[in-house]
Amino acid sequence: MIKAIISLESTCDLDKELINKYNLKIIDMSFSIGTDDYSTDLDDVNSTCLYERMRKGERTSTSSINTERYKLFFKELLKENLPIIHLSFSSGLSNTYESALKAKEEIIKRKKDAEIYVIDSLCACGGQGVLGILSRLKCDELNSIAELVDYIENIKHNLNHIFSVDNLKYLTNGGRLKRSTQIIGSLLNIKPVMRMNSKGELVVKQMVVSRKKALKTMIENYNDKKDDKYDICLISHADCINDAKYIEKGLIDIGLNPIITSLGPIIGSHSGPGTISLYFIGNGR
């Protein structure tokens, strides 16, 4: 058995019950809606009415975590006298990994015996959360930190992220979709099905016609990529619980018991209401 601290950014989108159950440490992040500023430590999509306000046209933004904030976070965790394994948000989507790594390096310059392992998860949202859960469970099976780090570095490449959005304008506003594609796609009711690639980047996998087809395609993607040795599966939704329930039923029908969580404000601010995502271990990505 390994005794270690497993930490993540609040982009992992796990609710407090899951965070406490798996003893995970979370560093909070900041976001804004209109002229109002919030922190994920105190506020969530419900308390801020994030998706309702986005539907009304309010602009949103998020702030990445700088090196100094990571240093404070790690220093506080080091008081527990345990190794820290930090599963950072994908470097393919943010500079948080670089900031966390720099914080670690600066701490170790002054405290040579500090054990901090910063891992680029190449994951986002619930995928990052699933990696945190698997890491905690593996602590009960392995005997050394080196074995655990090796496990995480390998399993992360098999952690599948399948996404779809209901309104293309949020991807357009974030620069991930051309304006012309948004206009044509909206007219034809085209919905993108996206995935995270091996570099931890969000890419379009295919375009389908209608929301229902997108949801069915996500379930088909699970069946095509699944690794039967793992039954952990997580669904995140941005104020579209009925769509999450639709995917849940499709997975229950094949013997799974998926976890449903709300898509948090950091990713939700960029993907918008109606975002639906599915995370699972597969045979590669």
Protein architecture, described:
- The chain is α/β, with parallel strands linked by helices and 285 residues long.
- The protein has two domains: 153 residues, Rossmann fold (3-Layer(aba) Sandwich); 124 residues, Hypothetical Protein Tm841, Chain: A,domain 3.
- 39% of the residues lie in helices and 24% in strands.
- A six-stranded mixed beta sheet has the order 10-9-8-13-11-12, sandwiched between helices.
- Helix 5 runs antiparallel to helix 6.
- It is globular, with a radius of gyration of 19 Å.
How much is the average pLDDT?
93
Helix content estimate: 25-40%
Q: Indicate the low-confidence ranges by residue numbers.
A: none
Task: Give the domain tally.
Answer: 2
Q: How many H/I helices?
A: 11
How many beta-strand runs?
Answer: 13
Instruction: Tell me what the CATH architecture of the largest domain is.
Output: 3-Layer(aba) Sandwich
What's the alpha carbon Rg, rounded to whole Å?
Answer: 19 Å
Order of H and E elements? EHEEEHEHEHEHHEHHEEHEHEHE
What portion of the residues fall into strands of 2 or more residues? 15-25%
CATH first level of the largest domain:
Alpha Beta
Strand order of the largest sheet: 10-9-8-13-11-12
CATH-defined topology of the largest domain: Rossmann fold
- Describe the sheet with the most strands: 6 strands, mixed
**Structural class designation:** alpha/beta
Distance between the termini: 29 Å
Shape: globular
